[in-house]
Design goal:
142 residues; single chain; 3 strands; mainly alpha
Length: 142
């Protein structure tokens, strides 16, 4: 086994799992570099002593339910965020549909006006407008 826990690779860990488990069962030190903990100071690269705590026997420790309030609150917050995002997406999609509908309507109007213009332009070329009449008309405009 390597001299430090920080230097172990997967094969070393698998080979000496029992030794490692014994070393980390009652940690007294923590590595400041990688946050590993161990009972032996020499097994860590930058050891720092942990504060001594008075531990209770396992039978007196409170039982923590996996579905605790913080976990439920986190799930609830994530669900709320997902719902909010979905609502924004629906609103944006609705707005896009409205703009698309308006654009289609304007396109139909444009096509109708273009067809009318082309009909009028074709009819206007058939008319013989005299330049004198046209000049008199522009004089009245000014």
């Amino acid at each position: 086994m390597a001299t430090r826990l920080c230097k172990l690779n997967r094969r070393d860990i698998a080979a000496s799992l029992d030794d490692i488990q014994a070393m980390v069962a009652q940690p007294g030190y923590m590595c400041r570099s990688c946050a590993r903990s161990c009972a032996d100071k020499s097994a860590l690269c930058k050891p720092q002593a942990l504060a001594k705590q008075h531990t209770q026997p396992a039978s007196l420790l409170p039982v923590v339910n996996v579905d605790s309030k913080p976990a439920k609150a986190a799930n609830k917050a994530a669900l709320k965020l997902a719902k909010k995002t979905l609502k924004k997406q629906k609103k944006y999609h609705k707005k896009l549909e409205k703009v698309l509908k308006k654009q289609r309507k304007l396109m139909r109007k444009q096509q109708a006006l273009q067809s009318k213009f082309s009909v009028l332009q074709g009819a206007g070329s058939d008319l013989n407008v005299t330049p004198a009449l046209d000049a008199g008309f522009s004089a009245q405009m000014h």
